[in-house]
Amino acid sequence: MSQRIKIKALLESEQTNIEVTVKGWVRTFRNNQFIALNDGSTNNNIQVVVDFENTDPNLLKRLTTGAAISVVGQLVASLGKGQKVEVKAKEIEILGDSDPEKYPLQPKKHSLEFLREIAHLRFRTNTFGAIFRVRNSLSFAVHTFFQERGFVYLHTPIITASDAEGAGETFHVTNFDLANPPKIENGEIDFKQDFFGRATNLTVSGQLEGELGAMALSDIYTFGPTFRAENSNTTRHLAEFWMIEPEMAFYDLEDNMNLAEELLKYLIAYVLKHNAEDIEFLTQRLAEEEKQKPQQERSDMTLLEKLQFCLDNDFQRLTYTEAINILIESAPNKKKKFQYPVEGWGTDLQSEHERYLVEKHFKKPVILTDYPKAIKAFYMRQNEPDANGHETVRAMDILFPGIGEMVGGSQREERLEKLEQRMDEMGIPKDELWWYLDTRRFGACPHAGFGLGFERMVQFVTGMGNIRDVIPFPRFPKNAEF
Ligand code: 4AD
Ligand code: MG
User: Fold this and answer.
1) Atom from ligand 1 closest to the CA of residue 238
2) Secondary structure E strands in 134-285
3) Fold of 7-104
4) How far is the CA of 398 from the centre of ligand 2 (A)?
5) For the segment 290-345, what is each residue's pLDDT rounded down to a tens digit?
6) What CATH code would you report for 126-169+204-469?
7) What pTM did the predictor assign?
8) With a 6 A CB cut-off, is 243 part of the ligand 1 pocket?
């Protein structure tokens, strides 16, 4: 028997009139004659033509949507339109039946909400096939980008005892019998007796450990899962998401921004080159979704145009202070259209403000720098106060249309005294982070890094509105199904 060929290769085959074996799942079976078969290698199906007059009627009945089959047949030029080649079946074997009465995926349009409830099957739809092939390409491209530039892929721990961002949004990791944990005299839980001999949690960021690596290897990156117990039920937040965190010795904030912009453009270009069919499909999908919206809410660019636009334009760079001034003077602020009015310097930006800057004011990706020290993490490098006495840090956030914050990063505070002082002010335990502070004691140097939220990038590139649709099995408040 000839070897199985994947459908993508079959459809691209220059040769015809050869015997082939193809395996996949039935998408549809029409007129007792035409099987649309898909194996996930491409969004396109191969048409298998069945000689129904000479085929066992019992087998024909079992050719139902969702069934797994193996076909041996002749690859021939197709007479039908829409495909170059098709397979004339000689032998069909049912590998796995799919009861059409019970199979939840019908050959029709299902809502994304419904498909989320059957996330174990949604890979079998065109939309999710395309999304997860694009996600795969993007993650591969992350590695090629950094490997081409001599970065070392560093595996930082998933279980840690620190809260890198200091936001207190960690998931605890414990082996205790939760109904009856050992306690010390004052009634507090005695973590000394726990598995690790201390309280531990799932990591919110690999940055602190990443910095340790960069202080020897120069340029490192992490790419792994991170966990946040923030109770955010939004289309941009997950409790478990993947983050890419490069950390570079001898980089300042400007170098950091340049690298981040280069990375984002590289990722987009990579997918445009390697996933052209999937992007075309997703562009079509988004266009149809947009048609359901009222005219003034529709985007004036297609997905493909948005991606190309990002590649062709420099990101707009400005300081937080400049952004606040734009926002204070903006029409929606003056007309009290913002839910959170922008009154003055120092407040954190809400997503409505970020979206205004990116989508209305600049109409392109924006990099905001030098945020108020009070709203950022302890490890960011402190600027000298400005003429107004405003205290800022060398932070940068990259904001994207439709997404908001895509990247968060900073130049790090490498001066031991300044860092310790900030940790004291913010109540970050210095004794627990002795190893982090050691990098400032021995051979400290200017360095910088950032974190790219991988799912937000996949969202942007695929045009999907909800982050829960770009990770195979999303984790969010009150949901850990599958
Ligand atoms: O801005 P964040 O919190 O930065 C850090 O964690 C730094 N340690 C990064 C660094 O400098 N090495 O998170 C970085 C990015 C955000 O910009 C966002 O894209 C994404 O991670 N992100 C989330 N994505 C999905 N769900 C969530 N709950 C997210 N929280 C942050
Ligand atoms: Mg951030």
Assistant:
1) 26
2) 152-153, 159-160, 172-173, 200-202, 219-227, 240-249
3) OB fold (Dihydrolipoamide Acetyltransferase, E2P) (2.40.50)
4) 9
5) 999 999 888 889 999 999 999 999 999 999 999 999 999 999 999 999 999 998 99
6) 3.30.930.10
7) 0.96
8) yes
